[in-house]
Amino acid sequence: MGIRGGHILYWLARPGHAPDDGTVLYNEGRGPLWEHHEMGCLAFLLAVLTGTAQTEYFSHLYEVQKPTEHRFATADRTLGATEQ
């Protein structure tokens, strides 16, 4: 998954391991800095969105948005589909 400035997120999945046992790796794209998180991809994305990720690179997202709460909705509700 590419991020602004050429930064890239990798999800390292190993044969014989459950997907949730994977590691999320972050590379700044133009240098040698790497950050790794011993958790699955979904757990990492949730941690970033809720501001609980221990990361140097994504903490600004939480500070910019300063959400009071996170809400999840179905695609039908988000897209305004009507029930029949």
Précis, in short:
Helices cover 26% and strands 17% of the residues. With 84 residues, the protein is an alpha+beta fold.
Largest sheet: 3 strands, antiparallel
Helix content: 25-40%
**CA(first)-CA(last) distance:** 37 Å
What integer value in Å does the Rg equal? Answer: 16 Å
Number of helices: 3
Mean pLDDT: 76
Based on secondary structure, the structural category is alpha+beta
Low-confidence stretches: none
| Strand composition percent | 15-25%
Descriptive report:
There is one protein chain. This protein has 84 residues and is of the alpha+beta class. The chain has helices at residues 41-50, 59-65, 75-79, and strands spanning 8-12, 23-27, 34-37. It has a 3-stranded antiparallel beta sheet, with no helix packed on it. Strand 2 and strand 3 form a beta hairpin. The model has no long low-confidence stretch (mean pLDDT 76).
